[in-house]
Amino acid sequence: MPEDCHVFCVNEDRPGLNTLHPKGRRIEAPTRHRQVDAYDPSQSRLAFFFVVATIATDDSDDRRVSLLDELVESEFVKVCRSLDVDRFRNIEALGDAKSIPIDAKDFAAAFASLKLKSCSVHLQRTFPRILQMQYSTTGAIVGFTMDDAASLIINGVEARAPALLLVKGTATCEIVEQQANLVALVNFASIDDRGWPGDADSAQLIATLPDRCETLRVTVRDVLTLASHSPDSFAQPNVIEHVEESILQAVDLAMAAASPTPEAKRLSLSHYLALVRKLDEFVADSAGKTLYSADVARQLGVSVRTLHNAVVAIRGMSMHRYMRLRRLWNVRQQLVRGASVQSVKAVALVNGFWHMGEFTALYRELFGETPQQTLSAARKQTSEPS
């Protein structure tokens, strides 16, 4: 790592320890992680505020889960935990989002947000889903996973660590998450003269180096934890500015080692991406109608094979499974209205499910409860006095 990189996550008194919040335990960090450069008092005073406690930086699942679980709301940090897929809230500050769950059993999504002066930091525990996200920012959004076990497909390209998502301006991303992930996104109000790659109103995946990605993760982890458990530190003169500069430096280092997705691969997927978006529009306009793959392909001017290949590339699943998933989600959205629903069977039939036994099994597999249980809970909630 270059000598001019000063990351504030190092405890000078114990070089092998990364600093976090006051309640953390002093545990030696595993030696397999590369130690970041030591803090230089002439460059920044941030380490003073972070030499308060330590926590191991291994990649265990316990640490992944506890990172969000240990955050608490403060003057600077907002925390939202959703135990119900029907009431799940996306991160509003990043744009318009629409999620279709792939597996809603044991649902436990959550997010934390930290608003600073010139950027905001977001940490989200997601769930298996298809996410249609229209990002919008005056500067840039940088997204990355918080561990190497995470896996996403963004616009047909697999995004595995140490990859970064870089969005400039307004851009739409089609995202598939086959598993729950822990992801971070930083929204910068302005990135003038930083030299980051990419055109305006674009989104791209960028491969960086593992150590640069880990530095960025540790920086965000420490910033969120400090703001959550020691918010008074942010009242100290210039601390917020130092924090923002540390985040920018970490991103700069990651971008300096960046290699964007090859142009040829992006172009080969652009046709598929446009085709899947047309498919979604056609399905939305045909709500309540029985759709057959041959008819849909004909309406879109392509072969069934081409349409299938496009859905597999962009959505990560077969066209049949994707269409069924959309129909199941439509059923649930109608059932949660409660009083306005006549019967489960009526809703199922309208959405193309004629075999009630198979429909119930598919619904239970996806949502962890029967359609009747969903409807009963919705009716009970609407009948209770507010």
Description:
The protein has helices at 46-50, 61-69, 210-229, 239-256, 263-285, 293-300, 304-315, 319-335, 344-350, 356-367, 371-383; strands at 77-82, 95-101, 109-115, 119-125, 129-145, 152-154, 157-159, 163-177, 182-188, 202-207, 259-260. The chain has 386 residues and is α+β, with helices and mostly antiparallel strands. It has two domains: 59-261, Sandwich (Jelly Rolls); 264-383, Arc Repressor Mutant, subunit A (Orthogonal Bundle). The radius of gyration is 23 Å and the shape is globular. Mean pLDDT is 79; it is low at 1-65.
Number of domains: 2
User: For the CA atoms, what is the radius of gyration?
Assistant: 23 Å
Largest sheet: 11 strands, antiparallel
Low-confidence stretches: 1-65
**Average of per-residue pLDDT values:** 79
CATH topological fold name of the largest domain: Jelly Rolls
- DSSP strand count: 11
Globally, the shape reads globular
The share of residues in extended strands comes to 15-25%
CATH homologous superfamily (4th level) name of the largest domain = Jelly Rolls
Helix coverage percent of residues?
25-40%
H/E element order: HHEEEEEEEEEEHHEHHHHHHH
Structural class, by secondary structure, is alpha+beta
Query: Quick one: CATH class of the largest domain?
Result: Mainly Beta
C-alpha termini separation? 57 Å
Set down the secondary structure blueprint.
Blueprint: H1 46-50, H2 61-69, E1 77-82, E2 95-101, E3 109-115, E4 119-125, E5 129-145, E6 152-154, E7 157-159, E8 163-177, E9 182-188, E10 202-207, H3 210-229, H4 239-256, E11 259-260, H5 263-285, H6 293-300, H7 304-315, H8 319-335, H9 344-350, H10 356-367, H11 371-383
Antiparallel strand pairs: 1-3, 2-5, 3-4, 4-9, 5-8, 5-9, 6-7, 6-8, 8-10, 10-11
Helix pairs in contact: 3-4, 5-7
